[in-house]
Input
Amino acid sequence: MAAQPILKKAGTALAAPVAWLAALIDPPLRGLQKATGLNGMAAFFLAPNMAIFGIFVLFPLVINFAYSMTGGSALFLEQRTYVGTEQYERLLTCGNYLDKQSCTEDLFWNAAGNTAVFVLFQVALMTVFAMITALILNRELRGRGFWRAVFFFPVLLSPVVVGLIWRWILQRQGLLNYLLHQVGMEPVLWLTDRFWAFAAAIMVSVWAHMGFYALILLAGLQAIPKDLYEAAEMDGTRPARVFWRITLPLLMPNLIVVVVLALIRAVQIFDEVYVLTGGGPGTSTMFLTQYIYEIGFAQLIRNPGLAAAASILMGAVLVVLTLLQLAASRRSQNAGGGK
Amino acid sequence: MTRVAAFLLRRRGGKGWHWTDVFTWMWLIGGVVLMFGPAVWLAGSSFKSPAALAEFPPSILPYVTAEATVEGYEKPLPLYRVAGEDGETRILAQVRRIGIVAQMVDPKAPGEIVKVNIADRTPVREISFATENYTEPFLHFDFFLYLRNSLFVTLMATLITLVTNSMAAFALSKYQFRGRSFVMLLILATLMVPLSVILVPLYSIISAMGLFNSLWGVILPTVATPTGVFLLRQYMLTIPDELIDAARMDRASEWQIYWRIVLPLTAPALAVLAIFSVVWRWNDFLWPLIVLSRKELYTLQVGLNTYAGELNVQWHYILAMTVVTMLPVVLVFVFLQRFITTGIAGSGLK
Output
């Protein structure tokens, strides 16, 4: 309680110079306003944000295509040589598309294959867990705010912290192997076995993000009118039927948002898995973003062109997924509006 | 006791327990264990000495073997509880161990050496918090620098985000100009351009601007968040235009309208964005990892990853520094999670 007045004092002490600064730039801005009119002021207010957008998002996006058509290891575009579609050909050429060993860039195909499997399982598990959690949080519970917070906690943790927490628990002599030992089971090499490391990558990322999606679904559940359920209860409808006929159709827009957001994020998976396994054992948990990072930045002889080409291919997948989302949400809106 | 149990187990409508109720409580309690458990276990482990960390099975509390300085011996000796033949247990200090026989002395009478089979002795254990796990990395490694860099990046980026995003949101919500919807669409479209897609060109731009190996190179590309503009604009749209017209009648300048009228009224949305921005920037990893290559510029996340990636991982330091890295976010969670959970539920942003 004693902290409050101190905070307030600090606040006013801090506000004074800021207010002074704001007052100081007012006269020149009045001049600007006189010269340019209201629309000019709109441009002035937009300028800082749009400048940063332009320099650090839009411009890179455009020159990324140029990068993907150049070769060599030089960083700046003017020192690079034009090679046409060579980088894409290198990424996409395979003797036999079912065997990644036969590809020119087998590391890329390995990463792409890993990412596909990861996305499939992670998104499915995430959606199911988030759905169950949302349904449970939507019940009449004492202390609902607390329970909602519980599942949200890992969402705030940084990927590095998430990776390290689980590295500590999954290590050879870690907590999980101790628990297995307690129930009389053999210890498992969670992070050095190919299969288990992959499974751990999926489970850890589900653990870290599930609460976020559960909250979106919960918001959707709470928006469903209560009288629908009351009517169903009066008709004596079975709970399972209520779920399939009322809850699921009305939740569909939120469910689509959840699935597509989860897909888009899963395709870019990097941070927590990189800290957890480092892409290993071997390259069995190396995903697309890590491939781009390794090729473009981490390895001794960098290949920015190849990394750019790979990132554009990944971006294309993301654009397709986003368009799918738009189409799906439009369709579900039309279906809802038609009735 | 039974009344407490009756209260806790009471259900709405007084009906009995349905299987869905059982499942609900199992899910919730399992959730508490699974969501908090790993972080709590990590925090608990961070107070253990390296010897205690290497133990298997691991103990819950940070135990160490008690030691005593005995006359005639330079180093402190570990203490053991020894069961004598007469059934009486004595506490002895171990001098050395040869095979299965330990040579021990009574700390009170250090002259006489007792030989004890190692099966007959158990170490005396006491709880001790290894606070040096926390102090050492700050004093002897660069963690103080990392902390300072992380604080600088987080605070600066959040400050700039609040200013630029609110200015843009003001323009997009309170002015009628040609191309307004195009600008809005452009901003929303950049939501689809994640960092991992533009890594290479962004890196070259940062290098060309001389911001490679600079904390500003970490800060600037992140500050123009589309979600921030969107959130603030939606909020500013609810501020009545009459207020602004009245201020214009009173010859307030546009800057004054923004600064003295709109910004104070947007405070709740600004607070939400500030919380988000602090968490985002504090947690950022991939971009600082690429931009910062000089060790003294690392943020906590990058520094932590580097130390954890060493061949010989010093877990006792890593665990403690992970707790330090986690701390601000845990504080946000404890005091401000209501803001965030309702914010996400309302707008679906992250």
Q: What stands out?
A: The longest strand of chain B covers residues 89-98. Chain B has three domains: 2-45, 63-127, 133-347. Chain B has a mean pLDDT of 83. Strands of chain B lie at 63-65, 67-68, 77-83, 89-98, 101-106, 109-117, 121-123, 125-127.
